[in-house]
Amino acid sequence: MVKKALQSILMPLIAIFISMIVGGIVILITAKQNPIYAYMALFSGAYGNLMNFATTLTNAIPLIITGLGVAIAFSSGLFNIGAEGQFWIGAIVATYLGYQIKGLPWYLHIPLIIICSMIAGALWGGLVPGLAKVYTGAHEVITTMMMSYIAIYFSHYLLEGGPMMDKGTIPQSPMIQDSAKLSILVPNTQLSSGLFIAILAVVVVYILMYKTTIGYELRAVGFNMKAARYAGINVARKLVLAMGLSGAFAGLAGAVQIMGVQYRLYDSFTSGYGYTAIVVALLANNNPIGVVVAALFLAGLSTGAQEMQMQTNISGQLADVVVGLIIFFIAIEELYRVIMEKIKTRKSKLEPVGGQE
Amino acid sequence: MNLLSIFTNPYLWASTIAMAVPLALPAIGGTFSERAGVVNISMEGIMLISAFVSVAFSAYFHNAWLGLLAGVISGILVAYVFAWAAAKMYANQIVLGMAFNIFASGITAYLFNAIYGPEGTPFDTPKLPDVKIPIIDKIPIIGQILSGQNVMVYIMFVLVVLSQWFLFKTTVGLRLRAVGENPEAAETAGIDVVKMKYLGVILGGAFSALGGAYLSIGVLNSFSPEMSSGRGYIALAAMIFGKWTPVGSFLTSLLFGFATALSYTLQESSISKNIIMMLPYVVTILALIGIGGKSVAPAADGIPYRPKK
């Protein structure tokens, strides 16, 4: 048990370490700068002072909430890679209700938006891909990806001369009402009380997955679908539920981003949070607490990369390079096993069994 | 605007074919890969890398053909790493694909900035030639559609036919398909499963790379970050809708190319181009859930296989 926990922490750490070294080599060759100096700029840009840390936290909120959703699907053995689209759908619903509904007090307006955007995300992520998987065997990787693109084009349609476009020529929606805005926690930053929603979501998912029968059944399905079916679990229903929950959290994240940071929808409103959330869940090994750590790390990487770009002139896209490498080095976990075995066999050759002199 | 006049416009059909190239080539590439049992969603990333490498070499040596060659080699190298991780390390192929796509989008944007800066690639970068076909060129309408296209269009036509023949009429093609359907049986029959997976993925990389090079030095003579803009994913859709065959992938790519060409032509009309752009994805979902004939993936697609020996 302890060994397994250690492994699930060690693996990402090794992957991060190797990726940083490779990234450092890229810096050395292409920018001819000291990688250590660049990484220090990145680190201080991410966590160095209150303002930077608040920005990192702001970027971490959508990653945490969406990452939780992706992790639920992963634990149930499903690959929801359409979180980006579910995020958009949640954001569309939140924006629409945010500017359409007038005169509600915030304590009604905000919960209403949250519920509706979660339902929308759940339907988008759960209904079509989940039902298609259960009834026709259509692979959720393809369906969620296709649904994601449909959502993105749909939002562009709404904004570019469509029904949600604000007056004027810029493709953006009207601003949401004040009663739909989450309050700002740190002045002069974008860190909103969405942070509390994220923390609450972590607690809820933790309890759901580890302390309830439904969570146990979801994980059982992910662990061994055949055994779960044999144990009397309605696997089909659990799969649809897992996709639905997954989509619901992505939808919630979209809503929180609108209510807490952007206040209106425009073409490039997400910075690919839905895609990064997959990396978050992967790094976290689907553990809700791990999701927080992974989200803080990845958000820090993107926040810090901007600071690094200003200080050292090294392009911030290096962060993506490092993230891609991290996932790669996690995916090839077999390599570590092979290396470990090689070391073991060499050791056993050096020390003959029985300890003879 | 008269709707009928849009469809009699040869330009629409010419650009349908032109738009199909960067979909059909990676779609056929994906077909090879998945027939060998490896799901490779990194066609998008390989296209980007090849697009960048092609432009860089074309600009440096002032020769578009050298650019194309370098692009294809880069695609093969990337695919080789993918094949190693998928076939030898039994890595989750979807996770791998994501890793490659994120890496590709980062490294190309990073190198583009580091090498060319804000001015972008040089203006005098050579592009692959457009080709006038004698005789056909003289035929009205048909000539306008089929002649004068970029050389990659004609390369694509040849590759479609070659690929279909290779996959369904040759021994190697048969072995490749056997590995994707039932690796245990294939291994028992003496087929080197790992080698076939390498072959499928590397062919996939080479074809995707051709598609990527077409974007940067076929249509244009420049590169911009994210210029593949999701074509690798539409190619995936084209492959599925084309039922994992080269000819099917090509025909579906034509259909999707038509949707794209139409969305540009209709820009002035009342139908939003964004609605038309959704069509390929909607169509793919419908195909997957079995409307319009079931599309069935190779049985062992995406499942890492550990050789018994």
TrEMBL record, chain A:
Pfam families: BPD_transp_2 (PF02653). InterPro entries: ABC_transp_permease. It is a multi-pass membrane protein. It is found in: Cell membrane. Keywords: Cell membrane, Membrane, Transmembrane, Transmembrane helix. Its main location: membrane. It comes from the Bacteria. The keyword Membrane applies. The chain crosses the membrane at residues 6-29, 36-54, 60-83, 104-125, 137-159, 191-209, 239-261, 273-301, 321-339. PANTHER family: ABC TRANSPORTER, PERMEASE PROTEIN, GUANOSINE ABC TRANSPORTER PERMEASE PROTEIN NUPP. This is ABC transporter permease. It comes from Anaerocellum danielii.
UniProtKB/TrEMBL annotation, chain B:
Pfam families: BPD_transp_2 (PF02653). It is found in: Cell membrane. The chain crosses the membrane at residues 12-33, 45-62, 68-87, 94-116, 151-168, 198-224, 244-266, 278-297. It is a multi-pass membrane protein. Coiled coil: none annotated. InterPro entries: ABC_transp_permease (IPR001851). Its main location: membrane. Keywords: Cell membrane, Membrane, Transmembrane, Transmembrane helix. This is ABC transporter permease. It comes from Anaerocellum danielii.
